Amino acid sequence: MAYETLIVERDENIAVITLNRPPANPINLGLLDELEAVLKEFGKDKAIRALIITGAGERSFSAGFDVKTGGTPEGTKAMDKGQVVFGQIEKYQKPVIAAINGFALGGGCELSMACHFRIIADSEKVFMGQPEINLGIIPGWGGTQRLPRLVGKTKALEMLLMATRVGAAEALRIGLVTKVSKPEELMKDAKELAKALAKRAPVAVQVILDAVTRGLETTTDEGIKIELVGSQRVAKTKDAMEGMIAFIEKREPNFIGE
User: Which of 90, 110, 146, 158 is the most buried (most CB within 10 A)?
Assistant: First the structure.
């Protein structure tokens, strides 16, 4: 499938999705539709085991919602669609890594927070934030919910109410990102993480992602029930047997996703 707002590439068993609306890579309805389509495509592709999302150019990961569509029927549809697509990323059955190459503001920050991992380039030009309050509005794609879950209530409220931007070092310190990379090594580091995740047993990865995501939305007791169901499912897989045999034979396991 040809994409107008994305660049989609395969690198062995990982996929790289680049938001291709430079220089700021704003998110509009067309981009959200294409992002949903590519997520569906790779969700069905057993050969792809991890995804990376990044932005085109060196300036921006994404500036967020395309304000040029604000107040239009397209913009209204995009607000609803963004919540759906970002929710799909958060609940995706394969690991999704945000490679934050430039500023990630508003919906761009929200997109990165929907991903399972975030790696950020170490540059004074790269920062994250939710500046919607400056416009008299609030985040609309999950910022008020995912940010406090990642950094805690107090820091989240500071960022949301004061429109505080955080650079790479502070983002790592507060738990907003997984790793800080040199700008020239960002994609190398993201691909290394993706390939390391791709070596894991796919069913076990899927079950862990699901258990953690759903478990955070419920009580510990209910979360443990979710974990038990997942554990029972994974125990019956060929990969579970392969893992045990490989451990006994002192070799690397070859997981096939079954």
Answer: 110
DSSP 184-224: GGHHHHHHHHHHHHHTS-HHHHHHHHHHHHHHTTS-HHHHH
pLDDT classification of 1: cutoffs 50, 70, 90: confident
Annotated active-site residue 132? The verdict is: yes
């062995």: which residue's tokens? 12
Q: Which amino acid is at 250?
A: K
CB proximity list for 151: less than 8 A, separation 6 or greater:
159, 174, 175, 176
What are the pLDDT digits (tens) for 38-65? 999 999 999 999 999 999 998 999 999 9
- pTM across the whole model: 0.96
Domain with CATH 3.90.226.10 in the chain: 6-198
Q: What is the CATH number of domain 6-198?
A: 3.90.226.10
Residue range 202-249 in CATH 1.10.12: yes
Catalytic-labelled residue, pool 74, 110, 124, 258: 110
Measure the CA–CA gap between 108 and 92, rounded to whole angstroms: 18
Cβ distance 78 to 65 under 8 Å? yes
